[in-house]
Design brief:
Rossmann fold, binds NADP nicotinamide-adenine-dinucleotide phosphate, 10 strands, globular
């Protein structure tokens, strides 16, 4: 693999191997393996793939994963009832409700119903509050994975100007908090851009590390980055590809071909941030088991 390409699959194997070792140790100490319960509501094909990959990752590291599938007609109260059962299940250490939920269900209410000590997605206000207060416990998996990628590839964000495109609760906002924390993996100077940001291209060009999480296929082009930038692509977008068997392909928010000409390091899509997200979810589940 080209040395400038950040190998998310290889890095995720490293993290999973570390988690697997710790799971074995935990089992020797306590006689039990961590348990991860994933709640999947509806039949969104992309969500089904993500959930299957999470289950597979759990199996690989010795975490007892279970998927609870509910029909898309399930009511908010029914979903919350399932979450409450998991909250009081001693074999369940981590709960993840796969988002997005069907439109008739309020994601905020469901997230609030998760026991904060089992909230391995890190989206409960208790955990996002801890992160914002500089005392992170469960960090959302995608931002956590990005920081690990940077540190493990010698691109420590300390003292560098990082531009984050996107301010969602899942990626952009927690990522900007994480990168500006004191300590390892933090200490960056962070600029957060969103749909109301003026002069976004100029801001992108001032980035030493540019992280794109806006959900627009190949939005960042080579004229928007400076030479030597470290480019991290969070986007996962399906675009039509009639020449492919399945009729579509996955691209990121960064135009990989042109930006990779200028970047000193860049993540591919697929095979970049995605695998690290799963690895960090497993790491969070291990942490949850240790806290119980
Ligand atoms: N690799 C992974 O594991 C992983 C995990 C999660 C998400 N993703 C992918 O990452 C992408 C972003 O996901 P998300 O959940 O964070 O998305 P989201 O909730 O839709 O948020 C998108 C963000 O981008 C901003 N934005 C939209 N258009 C913009 C523009 N033209 N210029 C500047 N900012 C703009 C929005 O600004 P406003 O706030 O002003 O609306 C918003 O803050 C998606 O492709 C998603 O599939 C990947």
């Amino acid at each position: 693999m080209d040395s400038k390409i950040i190998d998310g699959i290889g890095l995720s194997r490293q993290v999973k191997s570390e988690v697997s070792d710790s799971v074995k140790r935990l089992k020797m100490e306590t006689g039990r393996s961590p348990g991860l319960s994933v709640v999947l509501v509806g039949d969104d094909p992309a969500s089904a793939i993500y959930v299957r990959n999470k289950q597979r990752g759990a199996d690989e590291v010795g975490i007892l994963g279970e998927t609870i599938s509910m029909p898309k007609t399930a009511t908010e109260n029914e979903v919350i009832r399932v979450v409450n059962e998991l909250n009081s299940d001693p074999n369940c250490d981590g709960i993840l409700v796969q988002l997005p939920l069907p439109e008739h269900i309020d994601e905020g209410r469901v997230t609030l119903s998760i026991d904060p000590l089992k909230d391995v997605d890190g989206l409960h206000p208790f955990n996002s509050g801890l992160l914002a207060a500089g005392k992170p416990r469960f960090v959302p998996a995608t931002p956590g994975g990005i920081v690990q990628m940077l540190v493990r590839t010698g691109n420590d964000p300390m003292g560098r100007h990082v531009v984050v495109l996107g301010r969602s609760n899942i990626v952009g906002r927690p990522l900007s908090n994480l990168l500006s924390l004191k300590g390892k993996g933090g200490n960056a100077t962070v600029t957060v851009c969103h749909s109301q940001t003026k002069n976004i291209e100029e801001l992108c060009r001032s980035a030493e590390i540019l992280i794109a999480a806006i959900g627009i296929p190949e939005y960042v082009t080579s004229d928007m980055v400076s030479d030597g930038v470290v480019a991290i692509d969070v986007g996962i977008n399906r675009v039509s590809a009639p020449d492919r068997k399945r009729g579509y392909k996955l691209v990121g928010d960064i135009d990989f071909l042109s930006v990779s000409q200028k970047a000193s390091a860049i993540t591919p899509v697929p095979g970049g941030v995605g695998p690290m997200t799963i690895a960090m979810l497993l790491s969070n589940t291990l942490l949850a088991a240790r806290l119980h």
